[in-house]
Amino acid sequence: MSEAASLSVTYRLGALSVAALLFSALSFPTAVARGADSVEGQHLSNVHQLTKGFVKAGEGYFSPDGKTIIYQAVPQDYPFYQIYKQPLAGGEPQMISSGRGRTTCAYFSPDGKKLIYASSHLDPDMSATEQKERDQQAEDKRTGARRRYQWDFDPYTDIFEADLDGKHLKPLTAVKGYDAEGAYSPDGKKIAFCSDRDGDPDLYIMNSDGTDLKQLTNQPGYDGGPFISPDGKWVIFRSDRKKEGFLQIHAIGVDGQNDVALTDNVGVNWAPYWHPTKPYIVWTGADHSDPKARPNYDLWLMKYGTEDGKLVPGPITRLTDDPGADVLPVFSPDGKQLMWTSNRTSDHSSQLFIGDITLPE
Question: Is residue 200 part of a domain?
Answer without folding.
Answer: yes
